[in-house]
Amino acid sequence: MTKLLLAIFGFIFRNLGALLTIVAVLLLGSWLQREWQQLANAQNDLQRQQRIERLLVKQHQELIKAQQKTQKASQTLISQYEQAKQQANTLQQQLQQWREERQTLWDEHWVARKNPMSAVSLEIRQYDIKIAALSGQLRASQATVKEWQNKVMQSPVIAKNKQLQQQLQESEQVLAQVKQSITQAESFVQTSLVNRLHLAIMQVLPTALWILAGLILLPIIIKLWQYFVVAPLVSRLPPIRILDAPSEPSEPIRVSSHNQHTGHVSAHSLTVHLPPSHQLLLHPNYLQSFSKQAQKSTQWFLNASIPLSSWAAGLVTLVRLESTQDETLQLASMHNPLEELVILNLPQGASLVCKPRCLAGVIQHKGQKVHISRHWRLFNLHSWLTLQLRYLVFHGQCQLIIKGHHGVILEPAGAPRLIQQNATLGFSSHIAYSNYRCETFVSYYLGKDSLFNDQFSGTSGIYFYEQAPSATSKTAAVHKAVGGVWDAILKVFGI
Questions:
Q1: What backbone torsions phi and psi does residue 24 show, to the nearest 5 degrees?
Q2: Which of 1, 337, 369, 429 could be disulfide-bonded to 351 (CB atoms 3.0-4.6 Å)?
Q3: What is the DSSP string of 5-19?
Q4: What is the rounded distance in angstroms from the CA atom of residue 66 to the CA atom of residue 73?
Q5: Given 1.10.287, 3.30.70, 3.40.50, 1.10.1660, which CATH number is that of 26-191?
Q6: How many Å is the Cα radius of gyration of the chain?
Q7: Once rounded to an integer, what is the mean pLDDT over residues 333-354?
Q8: Which residues pair with residue 463 across a beta bridge?
């Protein structure tokens, strides 16, 4: 009942989460659609108002030209009117001055003015004559001023000029309102989130396209360079020999766990006969059964001289088994049913390059550790291109328990043969080892094949490899990046 309720609640919560996600996506889509519609309406309104502004500006310019033309004509009339008015004012001032001078002469010479023959009387009569003449001129000038005033007041040019001035004021007010509306529309468009996002995207889009083109083309160019330029040169380089061939031929390295000594030599399970003089160092995952009389203990590292390599290869906390009598052990992979095992017998004087990752354990004499030597090849282009700068060589006398995914294939050295680089597990230390370009560029470009295959050749010796190298699942991006770096480190140190 509890499981049923938990299943029901789990189903409800999963679907509720899906419902909330759908609602959130729809709300986001609706908001973006509304924002985009508002932005589009604002842009259309802005364009419409800008068209209206251009039309109003054109009309305003035409009004200005017409007003300037009528202003010039009306200014001529007004100027003539002002001239006539100025002339009348001048005559008025002159007449007023002469009247004041006559009155002053009249008031100061009240005796002499009564004598018609006196100079004062003559001067007064002259003033009267001038005043009379100037008064006539003033009346005529005032009549002219009145006439010009009537012309100005009744002139159609001046009336049209006033009308145009009023229209210009109204046009300026309309233009100010349109400009204010345009300013508001531009402010809305510029501050719109959708528009700012669009502008930001358009600003960085050219750079992003160049980067994308680089990301697409650069790997192709690099792979073309490596396949058609670097790889042919490397394929012509002399091979690597980790150790020189022994001066005295030793017994060949043979398979001690299988009747067949070449080809597919591994099996899912092995039966090991351990004599009292030997001891077994084995990874705990491969010990299936043993007798109660066997002495079992822990050995922390396969070899104390290479603790880090032993740890990186997983050869730590090994089971150490030994017995005072003949012991029969059953070995098999307890966690990976696709792994197969094989025992290689290294006689005295023999040496074998072997990657510790393919070791499940070793069988050695009691009190005698497996001798492992390290060999660096820092000045060899083959090593740098394969990223394997160090080689670990196991020396006899001992037996190596090798594991391989889907089985282990063993072949004798002879004419040059190629195998996939990631499948190689080991080879005799004196045979020629080199790199040869893979057959087709398409398989290399698509990642189906490595740039180089391992090439082995020699008059004696062996090499062995996995039948189907396992592809570890690495889905997470971080796991993939870290796993790739770790694999490269293990390859550099020959692990």
A1: -60, -40
A2: 429
A3: HHHHHHHHHHHHHHH
A4: 11
A5: 1.10.287
A6: 56
A7: 90
A8: 411, 427
Burial of 39 (0-12, 13-18, 19+ CB in 10 A): middle
* Identity of the residue numbered 156: P
Share the mean pLDDT of the chain: 82
Report the candidate in 431, 448, 452 with the shortest Cα–Cα distance to residue 381: 452
Query: Computed from CA positions of residues 347, 348, 352, 354, in that sequence, does the dihedral angle turn out positive or negative?
Result: positive
Write the single-letter amino acid at 4.
L
- What is the mean pLDDT of the segment spanning 409-414? 91
Number of neighbours of residue 196 by Cβ within 10 angstroms: 12
Q: Are 448 and 454 in contact (CB under 8 A)?
A: no
pLDDT of 484 reads 60
What's the CA gap between 29 and 23, in Å, rounded? 10
C-beta separation of 353 from 390 below 8 A = no
Predicted local distance difference test score (pLDDT) of residue 162? 77
Distances (CA, A) of 192 to 195, 203, 246, 390, 476: 5, 16, 81, 61, 38
Residues 414-459: pLDDT tens digits? 889 988 888 899 999 889 998 888 888 888 888 788 888 889 998 8
Equal fold, 26-191 vs 254-492: no
Helix (H, G, I), strand (E, B) or coil at 437: strand
Per-residue pLDDT, averaged over 211-237, amounts to 86
Residues forming a β-bridge with 298: 319
Query: pLDDT over 70 for what percent of the chain?
Result: 95
Examine the pLDDT at 362 and tell me if it is beyond 90: yes
Domain boundaries, the chain: 26-191, 254-492
Identify the CATH class of 254-492: alpha beta
pLDDT over 60 (residue 168): yes
Tokens of 459: 């008059």
Three-state DSSP class for residue 4? helix
